Amino acid sequence: MPYVGKTKWTLHRVVGHLHKDMVNSAVADASGEKPGEKRHFLPTYQPMLKEIVSKLTPEEQKEYQEIADNWNKEGAPDDVRRKYVLLDH
Fold first, then answer.
1. N or C terminus: fewer CB in 10 A for the chain?
2. Cα separations (Å) of 50 from 3, 61, 69, 73, 75?
3. What is the pLDDT of residues 52-81, one digit of tens each?
4. Would you say the pTM of this structure is higher than 0.85?
């Protein structure tokens, strides 16, 4: 049985991971802060990610949801899993 870990992959989490630089740039523009700054960047992250996902085509959303479903079932790729295993502990 593959190691899945504690991370529950969702459409939003997959988009946030696969397009990290683009999402962080959009959040930085909206919040006026750099990634990791807590005052405005972190509270802006989820609403901005939600907006980015809402602008995806239905086909793109389906593709990312299929990736999430696969990663939940089979486990994420090793490089992704290593990052999230560290964050889950």
1. N
2. 28, 12, 19, 24, 24
3. 999 999 999 999 999 999 999 988 888 887
4. no
